[in-house]
Design brief:
The structure holds two protein chains of two kinds. Chain A is α/β, with parallel strands linked by helices. Chain A is built from 13 helices and 14 strands. In chain A, about 35% of the residues are buried. Chain B is an all-alpha fold. In chain B, about 80% of the residues lie in helices and about 0% in strands. Classes of the chains: A alpha/beta, B mainly alpha.
Chain lengths: ~350, ~240
Amino acid sequence: MITIENLTKYYGSNRAVNHISFTINDNEILGFLGPNGAGKSTTMNMIAGYLPMSDGKVTIYGADVTKEPMKAKRNIGYLPEIPPVYPDMKVREYLSFCAGLKKVPVTKRKSEIERVMKLLKIKDVEGKLIRNLSKGYKQRVGFAQALLGDPKFLILDEPTVGLDPNQVAEVRALIKSLKKDHSVIFSSHILSEVSAVCDRVIIINKGDVRAMDTIENLEKSFTTSLTLHIKIKGSKGKAASIIEMTKGVKEITSIDAEGDEVFSFTVQLEGDSDSVRDAVMAECLKNGISIIEIYTDRPNLESVFIELINRPAKKSGLQELLDETPDESGESGEDESDGGDETEKEEE
Amino acid sequence: MFPIYKKELQSFFYTPFAYAMAMLFMLLFSLSFSTGIAKLDTTNTWAFSFTEMFYSVILYFIFLLPILTMRTFADERKNGTEVLLMTSPVSTAKIVIAKFLANITVYLFMLAGTIIFPIITAMKGEVVVSQLICAYIGIFCWGAMYIALGMLISSFTESPIIAAIIGEVIMFALLFVDDIANTAFISQFPKLRSVIYAFAAQPRFAYFSEGFIRLSDLVFFASAIIVLLIWTYISIEKRRWNRG
């Protein structure tokens, strides 16, 4: 098991990662999701022991990364954002160097290299100089390097960037198959990728954890309300009143004109979608409004993701909460000044 | 440690790099060798000595050694392979030592090429072997110190070219430490002069080339190398802490 406690990183006075804590269980794939510049790579670099942390603790199978780096690093396979390959080396040469670096016993080295080359399907380029490989191949050579020595914990920083769709599917399948006897933390800014591969996700933005749960739970907790899309031909006002009167409709969120007497409505629903949809449809037809299109959908994971990222961060420490909430006298003073501002604006 | 050493050597010897360096070094050496022979006449045979040749060669190799060492750490950083080294179970100290040893190996290879000149001379005349060996030890010590210095400079920057240029400037300046100590101004303060003079590598090399192996000179070079390597180690570690 890998434990990350209170991981924090400052670049000067700029806080890149803010008190992140989580654990990665054995045989689990953890997705690390966030927009560019969210602190994903910084966090991964710290977990791998490349960047020193400003505060916090990373424990990998019982070994603290800062206190026992040699013991901890033996269990890590790391694929950084830029594959760490030497352009002047041939693929096999490079892998053999990495195997030595990772202290794979000499007798096992050859079979180990064959194994990872087979897994990543790079056997056909083993004699080529890395500088002549395409981006996708370089990425896979970097990935192969991370698997050498069969480390129990894999850190993969955007492993599918630069691969063609076919290769992306292959690498995803590979990551899934690694779950059997590895723990994996895997970062991406592509949501569908994370939802396809991971057991759990952590969503971070600007160094803060915004959510940490399984994909299903995230979807469930953020997508309770349903949306009805309906496109009609007829009177706009009449249709709007009919829709609003129907039981189970919460509100009409938008109406777009789409041509001569054609309007499409987006309607927020509460309760069971199917019965409401049928009711709306029946009412419309009864009143002589023809329906061109009607369907319901859930807000998808994509919009959950966007919502989570844009949501203000939760305060993590007690001190921060205290700082945030001023004592009574301060609060009343603030209120007064706020009120003053408002009246001034009104006067203007 | 050994895999890194091996990889470094491969990067020198699997590419034309080490051979080009050795060739250039021999070419420069041959220049002073042939001018030395050309100056020979029957009355003045003593003027031709390897000691003097080594002196002029030193001036050349301060331009060659930074090219040897410039890629040591700058390239790792540029390629993003520093991450690989730092996240594998090898300590930073071992990385520094492995790279130093690899550079030293190439340097020995370069020096080995120049042995051809004493051999040619021995075939036609006579070589004072003991003095020659001392001179080689001296030039090796001096080169090893400059390699450690070049590695330090390489660890400061991401660009090998900048590392080479800065290295050349600093190494060139270091040649004149004894001249600085001997200026009229510094000579006014004998204590200051002796401190500055102690840091000059050139007079120490002079002892070697004259056939003396003095413990103090060996200690000087060894401690300079150790200090520079430790400094390199600190510089790499510090960069990781300061990044961003």
